[in-house]
User: What shape does this take?
Amino acid sequence: MEYLSEAHSKLLLAKEWLVKVDNDRSTPYLFKFYSSTVDLNCLIVITDTKHVWSEVLSSRQLARRWRDCNPQDVTEDLSHNDEESWRLKSLEFVTTLHSLGGVANLTFEQVKSNYSDLAFELRNDTFRWRWETFSVGPTMSAEILSKHLIMPLISATHLAFFSGDPIGSLPEDEVEKSVDRVGRVGRRAVDTHVKNTLSRPLVATTLRRMGAIFNFVPDPPRIVAEVQTPDLRPPFPPPRPSAAPELLLHPAALSPSAPQNLTAKSPSKAEKSAPWAPSKSPQADGSVTEEEPDEEDYTLASRKGKEVMTDRRGANARSCSPVPSVPSRSATPNHLVPLISRKGPKRCYGEPSSPVLQPPQKKSKQVPALEPLSDDSSKDGQKACAGQAKSSTRRGVKQPIKRGGKRF
Assistant: This one.
């Protein structure tokens, strides 16, 4: 038994499609037939536009099939030449049946069979013929439908829509020329041919409406001959959501390396505006105030300074209190560290007018007050200390002093 091949498919390209309808199932069938009187064989391809079946018969199979369908016309014990002549006449008759004029007068009926996928009969009142076809598979089915049905229909659609005159009203030779012209142009570039045919709005919308109506779409789309070119610019992305107000005010809080306390870099406005105040009132320690010495006393103290400073250094240290230096701006206000200058002279009650933050004092036992010095020596020491203070700073307001400084 021989199956359909690519060579058989090429033989069917020059054959027309024949149409018969199964009235019991209301299914149309399209089929093509080919026969060769040289090889005494024939073949058929049939489709319902969804599946494809085929059968190939040799000379022996053709004679056996005719005898099974028409036993009343069979003669037995024929010679070899008579058998060959009879087979040839039977093939010619079957070929006549599978023509446009012959198939129209035949009855199509699908029958049951235990040997094939699709069996059907073509008959009339005098004879009967049966085909036992087999499925050719999806790959070859698609190729057969494309070459034998879809592409010719696309070219015929192009001819029907873009011909100057209606095809049905033209004579046969004019139709042949138009078909040959369209076919030759289309086979040179199949892709361009299909694009130019189906991309036309009139053809595309006609096929669209035909498909919608054929499949019972309630509101079929309209047919249009011209379309407008849409705007093909892509839409802009949506704007990003705005950041929270706290994130905008404190961007440093987002970074992990940022300090947790933002006031460590710079003091707050309240700290900048508030003046430095002494930590403790001088009157709370029971100190007294004295007037600053005049310039005449400074002249006298400068003469006796060298002699008095040697003997009275201890007394001057008690009467003079050390003043811390101004803290740097880079230091944190919460952790101020007092610094004492080692190069500058010790300052006494002759301080500048700007207030200075006093360093924190440790709690310690009170030292008993020293024995007061004589009036002359005390006065000389105070004048010497005042001379040192005036040499580096200007005169200021009266400042309280402590009696009995802390020992180092």
